Amino acid sequence: MLSSFERAAVLVEALPYIQEYAGKIVVIKYGGNAMTDEQLKQAVMRDIVLLSLVGVKPVLVHGGGPEISRMLKRVGKTSEFVDGLRVTDAETAEIVQMVLAGKVNKSLVALIQSIGGRAMGLAGMDGGLMRARALDARLGFVGDVTDVDARPIHDLLERGYIPVVSTVGFDAEQNVYNINADTAAARIAAALGAETMICMTDVPGLLQNRDDPDTLISRVTLAEVDRLVDSGCISGGMIPKVECCTDAVRRGVKKAMILDGRVPHAILMEMLTDAGVGTMFVKEAQ
Model-level pTM? Predict the structure, then answer.
């Protein structure tokens, strides 16, 4: 157990980081194991509430793939995936909307409020937040984001709420689209002019050797990404996570991070300590 002196030292260490982020927007993409493990979920929500209370403006963007799969199984539908994306017919799109904008979104709002935060849920159709079109005819109602109107999120932030955004979009014909949460988070972060985007996933970050967590790459520039892809360092399921981060930075987000959502309080360790965790993406070397 930490002594009183050690606790005070931790707070002093966090002070310059709190000052750096105060009043700035941080978009957190939330999913993976951190979303299905109740203890990890509590830790993530506490991190977000703490950030809000010290003056940071967190925006939580969430998926909910496991919950969607469970609901589809309950109604007798089989999940089919193409290139890692769920094939979404009209009936599946309705279920996605029900699960993401309903059950998952509202449970996260309730959890944040139960631990002292103020939260408000949004889906892509609320206030015209996120418009989309079909990404690929093979995928049905899987959406490619065409436009983000960040005003509903800004309005909530100005009133002291933590916006909790489910990644359901819509088009002019009122079709509902299932949007990849990584993609949505990057576009929302850019539209908000966010200081930072955090992508929570199930790996420590970028590794020089995928089998050795001690080879973590803590910082990478956009110019270095192609080299890492060519070397095989970035491959498979990590590619869309990296694309999400690089897209956010190219669109003006100052920095983007991949963090291991399996580590309790990874958000606070990355943002408010000297050590940091995960991999940070920046536009160019400093």
Answer: 0.93
